[in-house]
Design goal:
By secondary structure, chain A is α/β, with parallel strands linked by helices. Helices cover 43% and strands 15% of the residues of chain A. In chain A, helix 1 crosses helix 13 and helix 6 crosses helix 7. The complex binds adenosine-5'-triphosphate (2 copies) and magnesium ion (2 copies).
Chain lengths: 256, 256
């Protein structure tokens, strides 16, 4: 049974897509078959792994409303052991249409039933919002990984996100747990960065991953070559950080 | 008649709020009375200017649905000539409720009629989405300023945003024009940053502001002191950049 991890935070630009792409690629390089689901209409995860938007005939949206089969929509990527269920930029208006569906919060959970046993990890990249598609991802997930940029504004929204997770746990998915809080774009030369790291560790204690993702330009260059950073520059700090994150998650899972 | 400028881009973390706060503060320091509207439920612009979320009894949302008056909701800030219409973190669910209103795209435009003559500039900070509240802001605006981070993913969403602007121009607001594309978090030491700057200038020519906002840690520190960067460190590169941006916009307006 594949473990489903949603990567979510309504604050924009905190590293959700960068984490989704590079964590998935790290799982697959460690020989754990992985599916990356792009649940963000911006379709950054899709393009960052080389999916050609012109060739996407159906996306996660068509699968959720029953107009396409999940197996036909999943594509292979240029990374061994890594498949993707792409998004499409036209998904942007979809959220309003889903509102009218019966069981509208469970649509994603239902479509994943069919493929959960084909993968060991299923990673869902969410949009910067707490709308219906993100609620669907939290309802489908076993756990949620929360990227937090080492910046002041990033701390502000955490309370609201944790509230939303509680609501989902109470009403839709009692088994949802917090995989962890991941500090991203950390720059040890900046006072602000160190302050945020300290505050988050003090406040959220064991929920915070030991692995910290450093600010590293290779992480932001890699998507322009349609590759995860492991395939772009395997010895970069960014590649090492995400590989360590994957190991930390795998080890924690094996312990339990 | 105040000029209404919406700060919009559905890509997250590109500097919408940082631009909203610091451009507004620059207008007000140059003695142009300014109103900042926080149309993002994250309420970052509100907190970045010292609004205490506990004290916000009504926000832009209550005003839009007619439950509060705009004049009672507007607050003074600690910056002379700068007022704010705050957001509230509970606005997050509001978007779905607005769907049922008659004229749901014009609610914000209508509420601004009452105060437009009290200010020379009205700046609207939008959420990272192209949902109903952002469409409201574009319908209420005279122009839209588009912050673009000097990163690869930031280029991807521009096409979709320009499409949405065209739709608003055709259906809701024929006078909406593009104030300009603003390059943000530029780091002249990085190849990627220079590549994005070149690509955007080549592609969007005169739409791109001459002023570029450099990556500058003072910009990300200032909100933790509830001040615009001009009041935090007036000689910093970030403060100078945003003052130049305000002058560039004012000069362009005076020429026309
Ligand atoms: N550790 C890092 N070091 C340097 N750059 C990074 C790092 N993580 C992410 N970035 C860059 O920062 C930008 C924002 O990251 P990303 O797009 O992954 O965030 P996001 O949370 O998915 O954004 P959105 O809210 O729009 O979905 C991207 O351009 C990305 O390349
Ligand atoms: N020029 C800059 N130099 C350094 N840091 C910056 C700069 N501009 C913005 N930042 C920081 O980058 C982060 C993202 O900026 P900001 O929150 O303004 O973006 P946004 O587009 O409003 O995000 P969202 O999509 O969540 O609304 C913030 O922590 C901010 O302090
Ligand atoms: Mg993303
Ligand atoms: Mg913002």
């Amino acid at each position: 049974m594949g473990k489903v991890i949603a990567i979510a935070n309504q604050k924009g630009g905190v590293g959700k897509t960068t984490t989704s792409i590079n964590l998935s690629a790290s799982f697959s390089v460690l020989e754990h078959p992985t599916l990356l689901i792009d649940a963000d209409p911006q379709a950054n995860a899709s393009s960052g792994l080389g999916v050609d938007p012109q060739e996407v005939t159906s996306s996660i949206y068509e699968v959720m409303i029953g107009e396409a089969s999940i197996r036909e929509t999943i594509q292979k990527t240029n990374v061994p052991n890594l498949d993707i269920l792409p998004a499409h930029i036209d998904l942007v208006g979809a959220e309003l249409e889903l509102v009218n569906f019966e069981e509208r919060n469970h649509l994603m959970r239902r479509i994943l039933e069919e493929v959960r046993n084909d993968y060991e990890y299923i990673v869902i990249d969410c949009a910067p919002s707490l709308g219906l598609i993100t609620v669907n991802a939290l309802t489908a997930a076993d756990s949620v990984l929360i990227p937090v940029q080492c910046e002041y504004f990033a701390l502000e929204g955490l309370g609201k996100l944790l509230n939303t997770i509680k609501i989902v746990q109470t009403n839709m998915n009692a088994d949802l747990c917090i995989e962890g809080i991941l500090l991203t774009m950390y720059d040890n030369r900046l006072r602000l960065s160190n302050q945020v790291l300290e505050d988050v560790r003090k406040h959220f204690k064991n929920f915070v991953f030991n692995t910290v993702i450093y600010r590293n330009v290779r992480l932001s260059e890699a998507p322009s070559f349609q590759k995860p950073v492991l395939m772009y520059e395997a010895t970069s700090k960014g590649a090492v950080n995400y590989l360590n994150l994957a190991r930390e998650i795998i080890q924690k899972q094996q312990k339990n």
